[in-house]
Amino acid sequence: MKNQFFIFFLVLIQFSCATTQAQTENTILADKVVTFIVKDLPKNHNFKDEVFISGDFEGWTGGQELFKLKKVKNTYLINIPKDKETISYKFTKGNWGNVECKLDGNPIDNRIYSFNNTKDTVLVSILNWNDGQPQNKPSTASENVHIFSEEFFIPQLNRKRKISVYLPPNYETTKSHYPVLYIQDGQNVYDVSTSYSGEWEVDETLNTLHQETGFGLIVVAINHGNEKRINEYSAWDNVKYGKGEGEQYLDFIINTLKPEIDKAFRTKSDAEHTAIMGSSLGGLFSFYATMSKPEIFGKAGVFSPSFWFANESFEFTKSRANLKENRMYFLTGGKESDNMVENARNMVSLMKENGFNSENIHEKTVANGIHSESFWKSEFKEAITWLFNLNNNK
To answer: Which of 213, 223, 317, 328 is deepest in the core (most CB within 10 A)?
Structure first.
């Protein structure tokens, strides 16, 4: 026991020197700082690998140089300055294909930390790495989920992206046309084997909803771009994270992807029957898409929107809020970051003050809601029911 304590003390001394230099290099100053020390790792972990921390404080990029942990012997360490009262985070080996997970390979919920002390230390145990391998994670996608394209080209950004499509259970047996939902972070929409943080179970939920109400919906899930996610989901440049590419990404959905979806499937292509949805930065983007192109997207599911990331979104909204037909569903959790609920409420108030039809806004805060796929999954059915006015269609 004494030897273990001595080693741990030595690590802390070495780490204080390393992180002091790192903080100077990054010119990060804060009144509160937490030190994360990863001291327990999987038995097969290769200490040549780099470890990163990724979370809502840096846009869930999956791993960037600024948030790479320092190596001290067989331990990884990093100082995180206070960015907001509460942060959500995970550890990766540089991208979401190499994220920490449970022993059986299944996703874990986001970690959460609240800044209480001026200086704090958190000891972390990582049970397993996903490493992009199946690891006893069979696909959970329903039979009516199809891969539309493994590498759909985005000419506006010169990139490729996987697109998966959910079709209603009765699609093959009818000649009906269906409304369409475009949803962000496609890795987490249908299938636990492709998710890095759990899945929304959109397919199972919609299959059940179809059985209960007869409602059918086509869902187009667009995989995010890993390290490009933070740029693609914001229309505004960010001093810390770089150029916003949301305008080009939106142009891709509207002018490249949507025409192909409308050609391939029996869609109702007008704005009244076209929705967009996302969470976190995906929520910010879905909000932007609807406010920017209300003639394309008549409905938006805005889950845990990262308005903190782009204060410009408030000024942007003032001149565009006088919408009468568009519907928006805002969802936040009481246990998310400190300004999540406040920002969403301020945005809703701003919209109403500038002419948005108040009857077409639904604002919900769940007291125990956390920034995670499990939370958004639990609220998806209610959001779809409200957005498509299913209760009044019975």
So the answer is: 328
Which pTM was predicted?
Answer: 0.81
- Tokens 């009481």, residue? 334
CA distance 99 to 74: 19
E strand or H helix at 26: helix 2-26
For residue 89, the one-letter residue type is Y
Residues 141 and 194: their CA atoms lie apart, in Å, by: 10
DSSP 223-253: ---GGGHHHHT-SS-BTTTB---HHHHHHHI
Handedness of CA 214, 386, 370, 90 (dihedral sign): positive
User: Cα–Cα distance between 118 and 123 in angstroms, integer?
Assistant: 17
In tens, the pLDDT along 191-246 reads 988 887 789 999 999 999 999 999 999 999 999 988 889 899 999 998 878 899 99
User: Which domains, and CATH codes, for the chain?
Assistant: 23-129 (2.60.40.10), 145-392 (3.40.50.1820)
pLDDT digits 0-9 by tens, 16-26: 444 444 443 33
